Task: structure prediction
Amino acid sequence: MAQWSEAMNIRHKWVDAVLVVIAVAALAGLVGEFSTPAEGGPKPLKVDGDGLRPAQWHDLPARPIQWQAPATDVLRLEFPGQLTLGRMFTLTVHRSKAGSARLQLLAENDQLIAETAGAGKDLTVQWLPPVVETLVLKARLLDGAGKVIAQGPVPLAVRDNAPLQVQGRFSAPSFDTRVLNELLANSNAVLDWQVTLGKTVTRTETAREAMATPGLMVVDAAYVERLPGAARAALLDRVAGGMPLIVLASNAADPAMWARTLQLNLKASPDKPVGAPLAMSPAPLNPVAGVWAPAGDLAWTRQWQEGRIVWLGAVDWHRYAISEPRSLGLWWQRVLDAAGVSRPEAVSWIEPEEMPLAGQRLEICALGVRGDAWQRRPDKADASCMAVWPKQAGWMKVDPQHAVYVYEKNDWPMWQMAQRRDATARYAARTPAPQAAGSTPLPAWPFALLFTMAMLALWWRERR
Result:
C-alpha cells in the first residue's frame, strides 16, 4: 500500500512538471516574435540610382525599400528665393567632396558680380541687390583648373520693405543720431523723432502717418536716465508688450540706475576699437557678465517678456556714413535683427522643399492665405498648401504679390540628384524594417490560450 501511494505521488509530480514546462513554453511563444516560412511574403521595394523626388515619395504608402545611395558627386544649393531690399543675398554651395574650386555669381547679362574661392566642401558668395526687381541670376562652380563643374539659374525676387514705424527720443543732439535718422528715412521708415536741444527747445519730426504701436523705439541712455520712475516703468511696459528698444550708450552716466532697473552691470570700457570691417569705438560704459547676452561687436541684448532690449555700446560710427555707407547699412541691419525688429505681413510664403520643375507636381505653402484652393496640412503648422503642375519653365504667378520660379528639367542635374537621394533616405527612415524574406509571423493567441489552460490545470490540481 505504501509503495502504491509513493508511485501516485511521483506520477502527480511528473504531471505538474509537464504542465509547468507547457506553461513556460507557451509564455516564451507569447512574448517571442517567431515566424514560419511562407511563400509569397512581402518583399522590400528595390530602388535603383538616386531614388525618387520628394513629391513622388509623398504619394506612395509607407513600405520597406532596398536602396543603396550612389557614390557619385552631388551638390546642394542654399539661397533665399525672395529677399527684402537692403538685405544681403547669400548663396552657398554644399559639395559632397572637398577640393580647390571657385564659385561665381553672374548677373542676367553674364557680368560677374561676386566670386569666392576655397578648398572646403562649402563655398559662399554674397551680393547686395540695389533695387526692387525680379531677376534670374546665374551661378557657376569651377574646379581648380577652371573647368566648369556645374552651372545654372539662381532666381531671386527682391521686394520692397514694408515701412518700419520708428519712435526716437534723445536727450541731446549728436552726429550718430542724425546719421541714424538719415539711414531710416532713406529706407522709407515712418519716423516720430524728438531731440532735446536745450532746456526748453526740442526738435520734433512728426510721423507722416498714425503710429499707434511703433515697430521700434530708439533712445539714448541719458533720455532713460532722466525719465521719472513712472514714465520709465511705462516705457518698459511697452517693451514687455513686444516693442523692441535700442539704447544708444554714448551718454550713459548712471550705472546704479541701469543695474537696479534692467540688471545691467556697466563698467568702464577700454579705449580700443572693436570689430571688422568697421572698427567701432566703444562707449564709456558697457556691460560685463550678467543676464545680457553679446549680440555682435559692442552690442548686448536681453529678453524683456515679449520684447527685447539692445544696448548699443558703439560711438562715433557716423564717420562711416561717407566712407563706408554700404557696410554701415549692413551693420545697422544686424543691430535691428538683434533687437528682433520684424515687419508683419498679411501673407508669409514658405520656400518649396524641392526644385520646382516643369511638368512635375509642385506643392506651394504659405501662412495667412485664404481660398478654396488652399488646404491645411497637419505636418505644416498653421500653413495652407495647394498643388500645381507647372507647364513651362520661368516665373509662375501664384498671386499678384508672389511668383515661383520653375526650373527646366536639365537645370542643376547634380542638385536634382542630391534632392532625390535626400528624399529617398527620408522615406526609408519612416518606413518599417522589412521582415525576413519568405517568412510570416506566428499569431500570439494560441500561445496565450495554451498558457492559460496550463495554469488553470495546475491551479485545479493544487485545489484537489
Q: What stands out?
A: Residues 2-31 form the longest helix (30 residues).
